Amino acid sequence: MLKYKELKVDGGRAYLKLGSLENLKTVDAIIFDCDGVLIDTRRSYDAAIRKSIQHIFESLTGCKMPLSVIPLDVIYNLRLSGGFNFDWDSTYVIALMLFTNLPKDFQRAFSEAAQHLEGENAAQRLLDASSNLRGKLDKEYFRKEGRRIKEKLIQLTERKIADKKDAEDLLLHLCELEGSLQHLKDFIRFLNYPSEAKQSVISIVFDEYFYGAEVFKELYGFEGALRVRKGLIEEEERIVTSETLEALTSILGEGRLGLATGRSSIAAKKTLRELLHYFNSEAMVFLEDLKYKMGGRDDLIRPYVKPEPYSLLQATAGIGGAKAVLYVGNSSEDFMLVNRANNVRKMFSFAGCYALQNNRGKMVDIFAEAEAEIILPTVNDLPTVLKAIREGG
Question: Do 242 and 218 belong to one domain?
């Protein structure tokens, strides 16, 4: 950490990049990511990924599948790549990886069943597949093979996978070598992701687990098939405090805080509640809302999704008159986003939060390697850091 000055803060240790301190003194606006920065999503989004995959594969196989088969390291490894802004993408890719680790006899049975599915929507297709595949896999399969599958998933996600398409290409290539290419293609067609929500197995299962039946219906306009009473979003906790937002507003002035996040506005409002009034309403960009408007189509949303700079540039424009903007995130895609935004207009700095990450030390190293201007435990340490910088460090 030779390039950094260390600062003790309430959350632990913050690091300030030497050579950037004068520029940081001029920060006049802050844009935040939500998940992992303002909101602790470890028991919501992370859990929704695992519960969704568990539900899909228990439905297809009729076998109990412990959540431990999908270790959290697999999710975090994908996020480290910077190409998995939407947790739907992570769910989809992990589902493909898990399918390729099922016995070839079951994969063959799935392909045969997939030719005769008559359901008009994703929920019905999943139900049809479940009835057609009953008894095709040893009931104890996941208990017996869980450790092997877990290790295989970790190995796959430790490879440099750039994004969803890169993962698809890798798995299709591996299946071609193993003689199971058609089976994976049939499974991809069955999941039908991305597509409009009613037709996508990934979307309807993930969003009902995450939002719960009531919010799911509000979001999509139709009843979910799972009838989940309590969405995992209810398990979320706010990281940021009103005291932190008050302090930042005192430093920068009213209307100088914004959001650039992959989450939906419904999800942000449900968890942040009254804290949203601290943010400039013209400077809040919710990429999931945009994806819904585009019918979930990957080709349409891709130019807008992190690490593309759209959300940060739009939020900054909403604040108006900003000349030095600090973006606060917690992932590789966040500092990539800042770099790309600087290619459009060089006015952005990056602060990376590390304390809620799976491997804190690793994230500090990643942020330092990326030359983040500020590395800090949590967003609540930001007022202390900014005051120290303005007072001369």
Answer: no
